[in-house]
What we know:
This protein is of the alpha/beta class. It has two domains: 2-172, Rossmann fold (3-Layer(aba) Sandwich), CATH 3.40.50.2000; 180-385, Glycogen Phosphorylase B (Rossmann fold, 3-Layer(aba) Sandwich). 47% of the residues lie in helices and 16% in strands. The chain has 16 helices and 13 strands. The strands form two sheets. A seven-stranded parallel β-sheet has the order 3-2-1-4-5-6-7, sandwiched between helices. Strands 10-9-8-11-12-13 form a six-stranded parallel β-sheet, sandwiched between helices. It is globular, with a radius of gyration of 21 Å. The termini are close together. The mean pLDDT is 94.
Amino acid sequence: xxxxxxxxxxxxxxxxxxxxxxxxxxxxxxxxxxxxxxxxxxxxxxxxxxxxxxxxxxxxxxxxxxxxxxxxxxxxxxxxxxxxxxxxxxxxxxxxxxxxxxxxxxxxxxxxxxxxxxxxxxxxxxxxxxxxxxxxxxxxxxxxxxxxxxxxxxxxxxxxxxxxxxxxxxxxxxxxxxxxxxxxxxxxxxxxxxxxxxxxxxxxxxxxxxxxxxxxxxxxxxxxxxxxxxxxxxxxxxxxxxxxxxxxxxxxxxxxxxxxxxxxxxxxxxxxxxxxxxxxxxxxxxxxxxxxxxxxxxxxxxxxxxxxxxxxxxxxxxxxxxxxxxxxxxxxxxxxxxxxxxxxxxxxxxxxxxxxxxxxxxxxxxxxxxxxxxxxxxxxxxxxxxxxxxxxxxxxxxxxxxx
Length: 403
């Protein structure tokens, strides 16, 4: 059995790595001896990290020869799955959506049957985009979503292919205690000792309020070519300062450290740079560290998150990794996917829209939430375990719908 996962940006995005790990684990339940492949421009490293094989090409390659190779390779596979993550939407840009439509239709042109693999459907504004999404999903045999709201959108937009609502495969990730070699690596690479990390609150935030939504051109290309460089987004600076104030408040109130866990490691997304900007605004910056180099395996990264006392995230999969490591977590969601997962995990009480951060009262509110989750950690973990077990079982049950 030969399986191809047409993955999201796992070579550069730690959240997409969690999705890929969960997806591999899920496929192994049904096809334990399968020869599983995916895509990466860093294939040697990723083969060591994920235990599968990789075609040496970028996930977002536009090289026509690589596309042709991908199409022929997909044709040689017994099963091709596409996802997960949030690939279909237009709130970030429209060109990314068009890219996936062309890519998937190109593979289908070679007679390859494709299954949508537990994707979330992001905010989509234009009628044109909704029609494109429906068109490409109708090219799949069955399309699995990671939540029911995504399925409901697709039904409204005219999708006729079978659509099955389930959960994000990243919930299958498990965190193990750090071993001595991992502790040594974290201290060497980031100057984070085991003592520092075990008395820390993890932060997994992203920049926001910093670009115009629903544009045609991806922000990464605007940044690369200097398009709109003179644009001013005052809310973005206010957001950074508020997060810095939150970190200082936490440090002072709880005598605790801060460890930033950037999720998207590419320069165009800038999670590392954003974490640095927050720390630069902090008063107690000596109490903050940043996991700023992409040297940790997904397993070690997850275990490091699992060592924290509490986690605050805006990136969805930072919140999922904390949840699956049984670390009480708070999410500042920027689109509905964060709110939806909090509801799935029974943690909606600890979810806030990211716009709330701009309000001075929110710093005090989140600080008080931390007091609560520290006090109720045991009951929170019991509830989390119950919800995760239920979601995992239901996710595995959907495997009977694959060939």
